[in-house]
Amino acid sequence: MAREIISTDDAPRAIGTYSQAVKVGSTVYLSGQIPLLPETMEMVDGPVEAQIRRVFDNLQAVARAAGGELKDVAKLNVYLTDLGHFSQVNVVMAEYFQTPYPARAAVEVAALPKGAAVEMDGVMELV
């Protein structure tokens, strides 16, 4: 099955050797997003909620570029430098998703690129 590379200027460009997303058949693999502003490639200012919201905005932009929406995400992975921010992820996530929610994992990590507090990636199924 052929792979289609997904790219959009509405999300931060890749800061390494990866694509924003890869579509294989009806499945889209969304690369990790950190809270970078697409226009400047700078980290968003503000509290962790602002970082979480920016990550969801970035994921949403890539999902739309692939022909989907966040509601099409089947699996979401959340990486936090402080698992104490888990409840804030839930609050902000409720602004972007409705039931049925995707399967999800949340993992505390030692560090993330550019000093981000949060990174998320996911798998989206287009129907």
What's the layout of helices and strands?
Layout: E1 3-6, E2 21-24, E3 27-33, H1 48-65, E4 73-80, H2 86-96, E5 103-108, E6 118-125
Parallel strand pairs: 4-5
Antiparallel strand pairs: 1-2, 2-3, 3-6, 4-6
Helix pairs in contact: 1-2
Q: Could you please describe the fold and organization of this structure?
A:
- The chain is α+β, with helices and mostly antiparallel strands and 127 residues long.
- The protein has a single domain, classed as RutC-like (60s Ribosomal Protein L30, Chain: A), CATH 3.30.1330.
- Helix content is 23%, strand content 29%.
- The protein is built from 2 helices and 6 strands.
- Strands 1-2-3-6-4-5 form a 6-stranded mixed β-sheet, covered by helices on one side.
- Helix 1 packs across helix 2.
- The protein is globular.
- The mean pLDDT is 97.
Number of helices: 2
CATH class: Alpha Beta
Supply the CATH superfamily name.
RutC-like
Estimate the helix proportion, in percent. Answer: 10-25%
As a percent range, the share of strand residues is 25-35%
Regions with little confidence, pLDDT below 50 for 5+ residues: none
The rounded Rg comes to: 14 Å
The third-level CATH topology is 60s Ribosomal Protein L30, Chain: A
Structural class call reads alpha+beta
Order of helices and strands: EEEHEHEE
Rough outline: globular
Outline the biggest β-sheet.
6 strands, mixed
Provide a brief overview of the structure.
The chain is 23% helix and 29% strand.
Structural features:
single chain; 127 residues; alpha+beta; 60s Ribosomal Protein L30, Chain: A
